[in-house]
């Protein structure tokens, strides 16, 4: 028994050490800093300052509002796109090309992509020129410095996470399931809503959680597309660490953001669980 356990323990040492060194240890440093003064004395004043200030609650609301809207937009766009890639496209080279087009932008820095959207969403950018040419608007619309501009940038960056997770879930639903449903007299709509959609829901929830977490913690895209007009919580944290150099208060902001985000994800997970009757 000991001989068989030793290789397993040796294999676990490296990933466990990596997890402790690069995840738990930094988290512990931030947590300890948030609970101490610059002189190392224990205190809760940083959290009291955050929770008692209406400004921080307003920034939190803006952050989570943008994150929730980004998640909803990615779900509404990503699910049909995943369905098209998995169920509609039959020619494998075209499907492979679509997946490459979807994934390739992820290899580009968020800074580069955000700067690209700054050009596209400008007053003389391609988006405004296209809307004017189509007659949708008469004069250039303001995108930069608005929540809509941030939302567009985040949806573009995070959409692949929904498409890939949902596509993987849809690919696991065999054609035999649909044929059996049709043989039992179910319509295509009934088959989708009662069989396919519930089976793909775990993939959809996984993608939605990733999108929400990444949107809530995003810094580069909101910082560039907001034009200094909108502040999200990650920008407050960055200011404390890079400009004010108040690592204790920055740690408290980080832990507050982490707890709030995990609480929302937990609540969403509980609400999405199927109810047992």
Report low-confidence residues grouped into runs of 5 or more. none
Summed over residues and divided by their number, the pLDDT gives a mean of 87
Q: Could you state the order of secondary-structure elements as H and E? A: HHHHHHHHHHHH
Structural shape = globular
Q: How many DSSP H or I helices?
A: 12
Structural summary, described in words:
With 277 residues, this protein is an all-alpha fold. The chain has one domain (53-272): MetI-like (MetI-like fold). The protein contains twelve helices and no strands. It has helices at residues 2-34, 45-51, 54-88, 92-103, 110-120, 126-133, 147-171, 175-183, 188-217, 220-225, 233-244, 247-272. The longest helix is centred in the first third of the chain and has 35 residues, at 54-88. The protein is globular. It comes from Xanthobacter aminoxidans. Its main location: membrane. Residues 60-268 form the ABC transmembrane type-1 domain. It is found in: Cell membrane.
Question: Can you give me a brief rundown of this structure?
Answer:
The protein has helices at 2-34, 45-51, 54-88, 92-103, 110-120, 126-133, 147-171, 175-183, 188-217, 220-225, 233-244, 247-272.
Topology:
Elements: H1 2-34, H2 45-51, H3 54-88, H4 92-103, H5 110-120, H6 126-133, H7 147-171, H8 175-183, H9 188-217, H10 220-225, H11 233-244, H12 247-272
Helix pairs in contact: 1-12, 3-7, 3-9, 7-9, 8-9, 9-12, 11-12
Which features does this protein show?
277 residues; mainly alpha; MetI-like fold; 0% strand; globular; transmembrane helix; transmembrane; MetI-like; MetI-like_sf; cell membrane
């Amino acid at each position: 028994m000991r001989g068989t356990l030793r290789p397993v323990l040796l294999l676990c040492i490296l990933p466990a050490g990596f997890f402790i060194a690069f995840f738990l240890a930094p988290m512990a440093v931030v947590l300890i800093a948030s609970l101490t003064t610059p002189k190392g004395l224990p205190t809760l004043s940083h959290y009291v300052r955050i929770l008692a200030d209406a400004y921080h609650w307003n920034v939190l609301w803006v952050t989570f509002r943008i994150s929730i809207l980004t998640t909803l937009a990615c779900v509404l766009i990503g699910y049909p796109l995943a369905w098209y890639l998995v169920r509609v496209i039959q020619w494998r080279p075209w499907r492979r090309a679509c997946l490459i087009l979807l994934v390739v932008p992820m290899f580009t820095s968020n800074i580069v992509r955000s700067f690209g959207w700054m050009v596209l969403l400008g007053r003389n950018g391609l988006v405004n020129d296209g809307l004017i040419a189509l007659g949708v608007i008469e004069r250039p619309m303001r995108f930069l410095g608005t929540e809509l501009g941030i939302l567009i940038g985040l949806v573009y960056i995070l959409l692949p996470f929904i498409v890939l997770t949902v596509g993987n879930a849809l690919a696991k639903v065999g054609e035999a399931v649909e044929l059996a449903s049709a043989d039992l007299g179910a319509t295509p709509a009934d088959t989708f809503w009662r069989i396919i959609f519930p089976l793909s829901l775990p993939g959809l929830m996984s993608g939605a959680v990733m999108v929400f977490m990444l949107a809530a913690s995003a810094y580069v895209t909101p910082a560039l597309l907001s034009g200094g007009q909108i502040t999200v919580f990650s920008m407050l944290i960055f200011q404390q660490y890079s400009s004010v150099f108040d690592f204790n208060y920055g740690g408290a902001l980080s832990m507050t953001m982490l707890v709030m985000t995990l609480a929302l994800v937990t609540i969403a997970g509980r609400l999405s669980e199927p109810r047992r009757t």
